[in-house]
């Protein structure tokens, strides 16, 4: 019997709060945040940007690794509701992205091309400190309902607390070091995705799925596996041999941007 929405919400909050473990993987953790957002909030895609501690913002996770969606979230580091959200500290929404090409020409254009028509961004914050934002995208125009936005904010708040408390000696240490490490690991994961995609003729989402499945199956952090792949310390055939062909045989769902 399938879980009720309340049960799934409770499970999501528990998983996002459970960060005080020795093998905590913040990249996988943020991936879980975006996946739970899509599952629970009646949206079609979700993504996270984080501060790089130098006055800039960088993409850290997305609910799908398909190229169209990755480009949308990369654009959000330069313009869009997510960037406006981290600067203002409040929810920023666009019920019709096609009408916002004047406000966010690059972001809105890429989002519409990828099949999205509306967006909302909620801040990832602890008190007055904003470390990033969670963006929610829908394929249909119109405001994302208030209940979903409020739940999205609650998920973002819990995730923020989880990141900042993980092995924290001080909040300053986490903000300045943990987030830097997260963004570095994401860069290494991008390199490993490229290795797997070229080796196995996969698209980037399939490569990411294979990398994540292997890391979980072997009890290792995804960033550590990615590091070994990028540095040729791990043969890509090991991943394909353990899990076989990562292609599902199914076309991308409506919750995955075209890529």
TrEMBL record:
Region (Disordered): 236-259
Keyword Repeat among UniProt keywords: no
Polar residues: compositionally biased ranges: 246-259
ANTAR domain sequence ranges: 169-230
SMART domains: ANTAR, GAF
Domain of life: Bacteria
InterPro entries: ANTAR, CheY-like_superfamily, GAF, GAF-like_dom_sf, GAF_ANTAR, WH-like_DNA-bd_sf
Pfam family, one: ANTAR
SUPFAM superfamilies to which the protein is assigned, alphabetical: CheY-like, GAF domain-like
Keywords linked to the UniProt accession: Kinase, Transcription, Transcription regulation, Transferase
Entry keyword Transferase: yes
GO molecular function: kinase activity; RNA binding
Protein name: Transcriptional regulator
């Amino acid at each position: 019997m399938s879980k009720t929405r309340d049960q799934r919400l409770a499970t999501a909050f528990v998983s996002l709060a459970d960060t005080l473990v020795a093998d905590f993987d913040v990249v996988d953790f943020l991936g879980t945040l975006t996946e739970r957002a899509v599952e629970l909030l009646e949206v079609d895609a979700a993504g996270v940007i984080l501060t790089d501690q130098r006055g800039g913002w960088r993409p850290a996770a997305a609910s799908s690794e398909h190229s169209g969606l990755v480009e949308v979230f990369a654009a959000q580091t330069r313009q869009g509701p997510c960037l406006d959200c981290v600067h203002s500290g409040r929810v920023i929404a666009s019920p019709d992205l096609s009408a916002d090409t004047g406000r966010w020409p690059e972001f809105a254009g890429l989002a519409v091309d990828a099949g999205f028509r509306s967006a909302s961004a909620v801040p990832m914050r602890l008190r007055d400190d904003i470390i990033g934002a969670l963006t929610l995208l829908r394929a249909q125009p119109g405001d994302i309902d208030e209940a979903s936005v409020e739940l999205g904010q609650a998920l973002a708040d819990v995730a923020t607390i989880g990141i900042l408390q993980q092995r924290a000696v001080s909040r300053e240490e986490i903000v300045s070091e943990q987030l830097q490490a997260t963004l570095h690991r994401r860069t290494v994961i991008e390199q490993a995705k490229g290795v797997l995609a070229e080796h196995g003729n996969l698209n980037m989402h399939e490569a990411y799925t294979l990398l994540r499945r292997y890391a979980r199956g072997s009890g290792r952090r995804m960033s550590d596996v990615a590091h070994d792949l990028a540095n040729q310390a791990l043969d890509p055939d090991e991943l394909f041999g353990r899990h076989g062909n990562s292609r599902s045989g199914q076309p991308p769902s409506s919750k995955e941007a075209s890529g």
